[in-house]
Design a protein that fits this description.
The protein is built from 25 helices and two strands. By secondary structure, the chain is mainly α.
Length: about 675
Amino acid sequence: MSDKAPSEPEQGNGVTGIRVAVACLVGLVGCTVVWLVSPYNNFILHLGYVSDSFLPIAGLFVLLVLVLGVNPLLRRIRPRWVLTRLQLVIVLGMVLVASVLPGQGLLRLLPYALGSTCVQVSGSQQLAEVYAAADLPPTLFPEPLGHGQAVPASDRLLGELLPGESIPWGVWLKPLLAWGVFLGFFGLMMVSMSMIVLPQWRHNERLSFPLIEVHNSLIDTPEPGRFFPALFRSRPFWIGAGVVFLLYVLYGLNQYFPERVPAIPLSWDLRQCFTEEPLNYLPSNIYRSRIYFLFVAIAFFMPTRIGFSIWFTTLAYGGYVMVGRAYVPPFHYGTISDHRSGAMLVLTVVILWLGRARWAQIGRSLVRVPASVGDRRDRKAALLFLAGISGMVAWFLWSGAQLRWALLFVVTGFMVCLVITRLVAETGIPFMRIYDCDPVIFMSMVPVAAVSPGSLFLAGVALVFFQIGSRVNGMTMATHSLALDEEEGNTGRQTRFALLLVVVLLIGLAVCGAAHVGYSYNYSVTLDGEQSPISPWGAGGFNRSNSLMLSHSRGQLPQPLYSRPAHIAFGVALAGGLQWACMAMPSWPLHPIGIIMVNTFYGNQAWAGIFLGWLLKVLLVRYGGSRLYRKAKPFFLGLIVGEVSAAVLWCIVPSILVALGKSYTAIHTQPL
C-alpha cells in the first residue's frame, strides 16, 4: 500500500468533547487488553512479562496497532475519524498507567499474598497469635484469620477449584474496597507529585526524558497526504528493527529446533578467564551477561555521563566485592544495600533542593488567589497532594500502624516515587527498581517495645506498594503521560487528565484483580508446569511481615552483623560527593545514579547493554558530530521496536501452540 493518503481536515491543537470521549473509550479498551492479557501471559503461560517495565510491551503493542493499523486504514476510508496526536496521547497515557497493575507493580503480589496469609495463619498457632496481637482490620483479608480456621477460598486460590465449585467472588469484595481506598489515596499522591515536579524537571532543569523522545517518535503526526509517521518511513529504522527481530526469530527457533536452526549468541560466560585469585571472587554479573537491545538503544538517548556512571560503577563495585571477599572476610553484601540507602537519602534531598522554588510556589498557591491557568493548576495539584498523603496516613492508622510509623511509611513512599521517577526521567531505563530505604531499617534502630506487631505487618505492606512496586511506579508513568499531554499546550486540561489516570488505577484494580483471581482459581499450576501456585513469589509477598512479627514476639528484631549506620553514612558521603562534583564541574563524569543501580538485578542485567550503547554514542558523536547522531536516532528507535515486536511474536506463538494442544518453550527477549 502506498504511503500517500487522501487529504484530511486540519485538527489543530484543540479537540472536541466527542474526540476526548472517543480517546478515553479507545484508551479503556487498550487498558482492558493489558489487564486481561498480561496476567494470562505472565502467570498462566509463564512467558516474558509484557507489562512490567516503564516501556511496557503490551502498551507499545496497543500503540503500534493504532499507529500502523487503525489510523492508516482510517486515513484511507474515513479521514475525519483519524485519531489525532492528542487522542493518541490520551490513549498512551491511560495504557501506561494501566500497566502499573497487572504485574510486579501490585497484583502480582497482593491477592496471592492475602490468600497465602489466611492459609499460613490457619496452619500455625504461633503465627495466629502474632496476627491476633496485631489486631488488623478483618476487611483486609478475604477470610478470617485464626488457627484452625477453615479458609476454603484462600486454599482454592493457591490451588484450584474442585469440580462443581464456582469462584467465591463475594469474599473478595471487602478486600477490594479496603485496598482500593489505599490505592486511591496513593494514586492521588502520585499524580499530584507528577503535576508538581513536571514543570520543574521539564522546563527549569531540562531533564532529557529519553522515553518521551521514544513515544513522540511513535505518535508523530504524518505529513499531509502520508499514511505513516516519518519514523516508519526511515530506512535506518527498518534496518535496526529488522536486524533485531531476525536475531530473536533465530534465537527462538533455535530453542524449538536446536539441531536445525542456528542462533547468534546474545550472551556470554567468561568464568574460565577468572579462575585465579582474587579474580575468582568477582561477582558473576561481571563475567557473565547478555545484550538486550533495549538497553543499547536507551543508552544512546540518555546523557553520556549517566550511561558511563551506570556501567563504570558496576565494574567499580565488582572490584569492591572482589577485594572484600578475598582480603577482608567475611564480606557482607548488605553493606552495598546500605550504600544505596545512603544514596537514596542524598538524591531525595538534592531533588527537593533543586526544586525548592517550585515546591515553595506550590505552597503559596494554597494561600493565594489564583491569577492564571497555571496558578489554578498548581492549587489543584497542592490540594490533591495533601488529600493523598493525608488519606494514606489515615489508612495506615486505621489498619493498625502507630502514628510515627504511619508517617515514616508515607515519607518512604514519597521518597521512592520521587527518586524512581527522577531516575527514569534522566536515564530512560525501562527496567529499574528501588530496593532500599526500607522502613524496617529505621524500626530496628529503636527499642522493640516502640514497635507494634501491626506496624511491622504494615511495614511489609509498604515494601510491597513502594519499593517492590517501584518497578512499575504510578508516578513515573503519570509523569511521562502528563509530559506528552503538556506538549499539546493546554495546561488547563492537566488536572482532568491526572484525575483520569487515578480513575484508570481504580477501575484496573477491579478488572485486573478479577482477572488474577479468576485465573488463579482455575489453574493450580502454570501451563509449562514450572510454577505452583501460578504466582509463588506473590504468595510469599507478606512472608517478611510474618518473619518480623514472629521475631518481635520473641523480643527482638533482625540486626546485621556489621555497623549499618556506618555504611549508610558512607553511602551518603559517596553519593553526596559525586552529586556535588556533578553540580560544580560540568565535565565531571560520574553521577550517583550508579550507586542506586549497583548490585541489583536490573543493574546487573542492564550494564553491558548500556556500555555498548554508550560506546556507540561516544564514537558516533566524536567522529560524525551531531549530524551523524541525529541520523542514527531512527536506527536505535528501530532496535526498541524490533525487540518489542519479537517479544509480541514469542507471546503469540505459545498461545497458538496451546490452542492446538501442543507444548511450547518460553522465549525471553527482555529481563523478567
